[in-house]
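question for whoever is on the cluster today: can someone run the full assembly for these? two chains, 466 residues total. i dont have access anymore since they changed the login thing
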Amino acid sequence: MTADGAVGTGTIQDPVVDLLGVLAYAELAAFDHMAEDARMAPTLTARAALSGMAATEFTHHRTLVERIAQLGVDPETAMAPFVAVLETYHSLTEPTTWLEAVVKAYVGDGMAADFYREIAALVDEPTCELIRSVLVEAGRAEFAVREVREALTARPADAGRLALYARRLVGEAISQAQHVLADRESLMTLLLTGGVDLGRTAAGGADLSGLAGLFARITDQHTARMAALGLGN
Amino acid sequence: MTADGAVGTGTIQDPVVDLLGVLAYAELAAFDHMAEDARMAPTLTARAALSGMAATEFTHHRTLVERIAQLGVDPETAMAPFVAVLETYHSLTEPTTWLEAVVKAYVGDGMAADFYREIAALVDEPTCELIRSVLVEAGRAEFAVREVREALTARPADAGRLALYARRLVGEAISQAQHVLADRESLMTLLLTGGVDLGRTAAGGADLSGLAGLFARITDQHTARMAALGLGN
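^ ran it for u. tokens below:
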């Protein structure tokens, strides 16, 4: 077993390994579900756009797996604790229309990325940089905004249903994030202590008041995405 | 319409556009079906291996679409004639086990690649080079051989069923290739005249005797793949 502490950060229930593990599986699952969702696209060009996002998620998965292996941890072991919770999220938010698929790729993945970015700020600098690099979503906002706004111009009545779906995405994302934190003490501790175990200053951390700020930032970004789509209140 | 002959090679039923179009959709379809098949993998590592092949197919799709657009042709228009025939191939060869998925990725896609490579030899040099570059399948043989040989060592009785599936792949590939050639005069003419319309010498072409050689080469390569898998006669 390479997983048993070959290096300092190489033990299971290490917050860095947990963070890389959940994100590595999240990217593989995103690849998988986006590839499937792409079939609902109205044109080959639109299908290729979502398929391309899926392919990008896969390259991110590979980057994260390589880092996990560098830490002396078996990537399967690092990802395994998060498979069920992420698949539950996907099965509870399975899009039934092309527009829902687009909203999921932008609003759902966007919120998840915000959350991962916040946690990444609490771990060591190289890991933080690596995680931020795989969370860049070049062009995704423009694509989603164009697809949704065009569709809603043609059929404004669809907006209500789509907004409801977006709300479901948020609810399920929060619910599954709670499951992860309840299950992985390492990540919960990291979030509550602001990464103090890793020698970072409290200033970089998220104590209870910091935690409130974290959720406020994530909420703000979500509201901005919904407004961009024309689905704001 | 950009599809109406903006440049010399930019008309529909142009063999170069047809070849790029069929291949562009073939890569998108391969991405899509491999991504789906990856779910049958026994481990996350194996799943990621097939998902990674799918992601690579997508980047090839993108390369081909860019070239089609450079020729002044709308990629959707170029791909459209080949959607039904390629989806028929996939629906008739849908793998039901992980090993079948692996055999399809290696034997089925390998045979298709051989065929595209042969046709590519009949068109202009830059197109030929582009096509050959997207048909490189680095590491795929090693992966398939390892997966299949390991599985057959554990359960030798599975070999018969797997060989039967491989035969079905070949049958359906040939059948769909015939449909394409019957439907696309440009490609049939290219194959029969050996690219003479494009100013290539007959030496590079596939007249009727050349055509026999083409099929012999494809058959040989198929036989070699089956032998590598331990599924040869």
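summary bc i know u wont read the tokens: Residues 1-11, 196-204 of chain B have pLDDT under 50 and may be disordered. The two ends of chain B are 52 Å apart (CA to CA).
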